[in-house]
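Friendly challenge for the regulars: who can give me the structure tokens for this chain first? No prize, just bragging rights.
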Amino acid sequence: MDPAEGLYWIIDDTGFPKKGKHSVGVARQYCRQFGKQDNCQVAVSLSVATKEASLPVAYRLYLPQDWANDPARRQQAGVPDEIEFATKPQIAIAQLREARQSGAPDGVVLADAGYGNDTAVRDAVGECGLRYAVGIQLSTRVWLPGHALQLPILFRRVRNRAGYL
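First reply, four minutes later:
Bragging rights claimed.
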């Protein structure tokens, strides 16, 4: 993989449809393969990509909160005690930080709105010294660093000619 023409870090998740409820992490959650919520497992991944190829470098099964908070279910499925609940964005941040601490090269981070909409993800990318191009929802407010958030005119305090609010 030659990064001379650009190197990219891709944060994504993959759903695995499941029929039963006994496989670790199976829950009714969004499954991209179906385009809707259904019974599935979800794994969060971090891949490195160039123009020629991509390579997954981190992969972790998401453990939904109802699984994380059910000791009997965890024990029956063999989930280690040290595995705690983490959101998908939290998992992605940990994967990215670990990759950078391991000496991973600079690149542009790419992610869909499921990750890009999360301020903590965008902040973590910056803290890792990387740039990003991520999706965000239309309702998400963003502003340039060093600039204050500008509220819509309806919410600003406006003085009339007599100086009253």
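The mean pLDDT is 88. The helical segments are 65-68, 71-77, 88-101, 113-116, 119-127. Your move, everyone else.
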